[in-house]
Amino acid sequence: MDANQSEFSPDCKICFEVYSRDRMPITLRCGHTICVVCKDMLKQGSMLKCPIDKQKSDISSIKPAYDMMTLIEDNARAMQQMREKLQKEMEESMAKLRIQEEQKKLEEIEEIKRQEEAKLKAQLAESQKTEREKLKSHFEAYTDKHFKNLEAKMRSGKIVIDGWNPPPQQRRENFERGGNRIYWAWQGDDGKFREFSAQHTAMIESAYKSNFDKTRLTKSNFEVDFIRWKEIENNWKERSIKRVNTKVGQPQWSLMKNPGVWVLFDEPDIFNIEQAWVKNRKDISFVTIEGTVTCDLVKFSCKIMDQEYPIMREVFN
Q1: Assigned CATH topology for domain 3-69
Q2: Are 13 and 52 in contact (CB under 8 A)?
């Protein structure tokens, strides 16, 4: 081994320990390098025999190789910096890889969410379509029955549609009765009509507005037949009944949201709709707590929040 090779050796060739300040390298006369610890063990008096080539060196001529130690330390620092740099680059690469994996997972989750939302929207649309078809079918069937009931009531003279004149006798009764209300009455054995109680009147009027053929009053012993205009008691005794509306000529506009149940518009809305009807307008829009309401006075329907419902105009006398 030559001197140039030994200069760059970072460890002692005897003990194989890395050179340091405690194990300073020394260069022998032959050019080989060992540490000071091994020098102290190998010296023989004032002489030291090289363990590699057996050449002898004078102890007094051997000095520490400070230049080599500086080179070794610089090399160690450079190696440490390189290791730290590589470690940092590795950590950054791992962090980027983890971020990419997380982004990929998030994209997969978002895709699953989009698919689920699309599936739910499709199911909701199908359900709404089915419900609309069911409601339409039910409404068409109910409408036929409803207008048959209206026809029967018109024949009996108890209801007037769109300005048809009521029988003179009923107009006289309304005028003589006075007031501004609706009430129901039954005919006694003496031929005179007597009012039902306020509670019974409210129940009968509700059933009448819902276009029921019959209704039985709970906690009472009779039922009302709106087709035959009779009150039927439990002993099958029948009495004639009539509906008296003292709101002469006042139109009513109703909305059917649920099949078979007609609900009156509010008084201001009835006024606005009636004004549009009188002026022969095709439609009218106004705002309620449910949103914007658009009434089609040609098709007799109204739209509330993209849902269409039938409407009806009645004039009671």
Answers
A1: Herpes Virus-1 (3.30.40)
A2: yes
pTM over 0.70: no
Reading phi first (left if > 0) and then psi (alpha if -120 to 50, else beta), residue 143 is in alpha
Domain boundaries, the chain: 3-69, 156-248, 250-317
35, β-bridge pairs: 25
> Tens place of pLDDT for every residue, the chain, 317 residues?
344 434 456 788 888 888 887 888 888 888 888 888 888 888 877 788 888 888 888 877 787 777 788 888 888 888 889 999 999 999 998 988 899 999 999 999 999 999 999 999 888 888 888 877 777 776 666 656 655 565 555 455 444 443 333 444 444 444 444 445 677 888 888 877 788 887 888 888 888 877 788 888 766 678 888 888 888 887 788 888 887 665 555 677 888 887 767 788 887 788 888 888 888 888 999 888 778 899 998 888 899 888 888 888 876 54
Instruction: Say if domain 250-317 classifies as CATH 3.30.720.50.
Output: yes
Among the listed residues 279, 281, 274, 278, the one whose alpha carbon sits nearest the alpha carbon of residue 311: 274
Contacts of 270 by beta carbon, 8 Å cutoff, 6+ apart: 251, 252, 253, 264
Are 237 and 229 in contact, with CB atoms under 8 Å apart?
no
Distance CA 262, CA 212 (A): 11
Question: For 107-138, b where at least 16 C-beta lie within 10 A, e where not — what string?
Answer: eeeeeeeeeeeeeeeeeeeeeeeeeeeebeee
